[in-house]
Structure formats: C-alpha cells, structure tokens
Amino acid sequence: MYIYISSGNGIDEVCRALWHFSKWLEKNYSFEIISVEKSFHNCYKSILLKSDDKRFKHLEGIHLWKSTSPFRPKCKRKNWYFSLEYYEENKNEKFNKKEVIYQTMKSPKNGGQHVNTTSSGVRAVYPKFNIEAISYSQRSQHRNKTIALDLLIQKYEKKIQNQSNRIQHSLWKKKKEIQRGNPRKIFIGSDFKEQI
Question: Dihedral, CA atoms, 39, 40, 41, 43, nearest 10 degrees?
C-alpha cells in the first residue's frame, strides 16, 4: 500500500510536525520512502511511503502536534494538524494472456477474393478491464491475432497508467485539503511524545 502524509499548505510548524512524525514512524513501522518534499532543514511538506504493514490503516486521518512554535516565539497557536492517507496498491497489474478472448471475423474492407471469403480479422477482448482491440490489416489470421494482442496490451498499459495518474492527482488535491479537529493521534511538545 502507499501512504501519503501531508502538511496541507505547508506552514513551517506543520512541516516540522511531519519531520517529527516521520522519525516516530521509523521507530514503530516498516516502510520504504518513495519521495519526500522538503521545506527546509528538518521540515517536510509531504511524504510518500510504500509498505506492507497493515497497521498503517489504523493511522489514516488527521493527526495533531500540540507544541509552541519552534519558529515564531510569540505565536499563540499551539495546534498543528497534518494528515495521513493510505491507498491500496493494485495487485492485479500483470497482464494475463490466458484471459484474452479471441473472435475471428471477416474484414469490413473492400478487397479481393481472399478478404471477402475468409475470416482473417481478429478481435481480442480482455474482459477483466473491458478493453478490446481489432486487427484485420494482414491477410493472415495468425498475424492479425498477434497485432490485436499487441494493441490490446498497449490499451491495457494506458489504462493502468491513467489509474496511476488519477491516484497522483487525488494525492495532489488531498495535499491542499486538511481539516482540523478530531485527531487520530495527538503528539505533545518538542520531543513529540504520543499522548495516550
């Protein structure tokens, strides 16, 4: 699964909270860091992680760091909110050629005697993703089958890429939207102790 941790609009104190939170996660969870958007020293705007640790599901939501500002001593605000969201990885990303259904057909093109009398055209259908590809450009059914399969794989890869792009766009939108209140976990002070 992918875990996205965001500071929202990225004010300095919340970016520092994300840095503290990442250190807290390192002590308690196993994960791989995919990307970190840094603000400045010991401050992160956002973090993208990958992990098989199912405990991350229990961390989804808003988190709060209660602390005076380490950057603005006269700031009265002491509540700094950030969010954590997880996204399940699509495990069915491998294309399975055994699931492709082939249908033969006559070419819709005008042509000679061979085109009009044989079913050399091929439609390849991948029902799992509801995509299909057709080839009737060659005189041989075998070659058309190969071309249709290649076209189908290209459509499949494009569909997977579009899904990935939608997830990334969703993460970008979430980055800007952090609601305050009702935190999942609360951390206290500059030493970032979890309130139990």
Answer: -20
